[in-house]
Write a structure and sequence with these properties.
Number of strands: 10
Strand order of the largest sheet: 6-7-8-3-9-10
Largest sheet: 6 strands, mixed
Structural class: alpha/beta
Radius of gyration: 20 Å
Number of helices: 8
Order of helices and strands: EEEHEEEHHHEHEHEEHH
Shape: globular
Distance between the termini: 71 Å
């Protein structure tokens, strides 16, 4: 079983240059994530959730503050951090086992050990029997299972998930949320999920980090002290979900007011 990583984000600021002017994306983000914890990050579009994940995986640089894994600065990509995107990004000409094996391309170890890890993780995500299948022979949900296996095959300390089920239908999404919880518990690693779906965030997270946009800031952190597996219909689950949703009511109201003012300012036409 892999070691679970400790993530420390300290006074993080990030901006882009747009037409020669700085555009703030993240402002003063500080967050500590314990080993083996599952943290969900939820917020509306433009709050910097995905940018934060890209910084943690090492796909972006040029920030102020500190990003630490086990007390050491995060610099570039590394086998100690795996990531799953909304699109599965499988190579269509490779089989399931070949796509999963790409996660071990630069990993140390013998080929026999790598082959064993590939088979173990295909079994872990429930795809035993599909080792020789190609992506076109898989459903969207099965393809995302392959992507999860590829992210986990080198046994990272941290698994980062960027809207991994956003492109799936509701039934498949619910089923894969349950599977992801099972896989996370089996692997025992630290997980960070970025999502727009508040119910998904509450179902999976030990904590839900609520972000607000322009620039992205942490508005509130909500604990989810519910036993697993969680009952989405229970009063406690619904109460926590409604509590998180209430953090976005002002954004909806603000947008509604802005739309009304915009319509009121439009000239009348015959």
């Amino acid at each position: 079983m892999p070691q679970a990583g400790t993530i420390e984000i300290r006074n993080l600021h990030k901006h882009y240059e747009v037409k020669g002017m700085p555009l703030k994306v993240l402002e003063n983000i500080s967050l500590s994530i314990k080993p083996g914890e599952f943290v969900s990050i939820v917020g509306s579009s433009g709050c910097g959730k995905s940018t934060l994940l890209r910084l943690l995986i090492g796909l972006e640089a040029g920030y102020e503050g500190q990003l630490l894994l086990d007390g050491k600065p995060i610099t570039g990509t590394s086998l100690d951090r795996g990531i799953v995107f909304q699109e599965h990004r499988l190579f269509p000409w490779l089989t399931v086992e070949q796509n999963v094996g790409l996660g071990l391309l630069n990993a140390p170890g013998t080929q026999a050990a790598k082959d064993k890890s590939v088979q173990e993780h295909i079994h872990l995500v429930g795809l035993k029997g599909f080792e020789k299948a190609h992506p076109y022979q898989l459903s969207g949900g099965m393809s995302q299972r392959v992507a999860i296996a590829r992210a986990l095959v080198n046994r990272p300390e941290v698994l980062l998930l960027d809207e991994p089920f956003g492109a799936l239908d509701a039934l498949t999404r619910t089923r894969l949320q349950q599977e992801l919880q099972r896989i996370w518990q089996a692997e025992g690693i630290t997980a960070i999920l970025v999502t727009h779906d508040v119910e998904e965030a509450v179902y999976l997270g030990d904590r839900v980090v609520v972000m607000q946009p322009r620039p992205g800031r942490i508005k509130r952190i909500v604990d989810v002290p519910l036993v697993r597996a969680r009952d989405r219909a229970s009063a406690d689950f619904v109460a926590i979900k409604d509590d998180v949703l209430s953090e976005f009511s002002h954004e909806i109201n603000h947008a509604t007011v802005a739309e009304r003012l915009e319509r009121a300012a439009e000239p009348l036409t015959a």
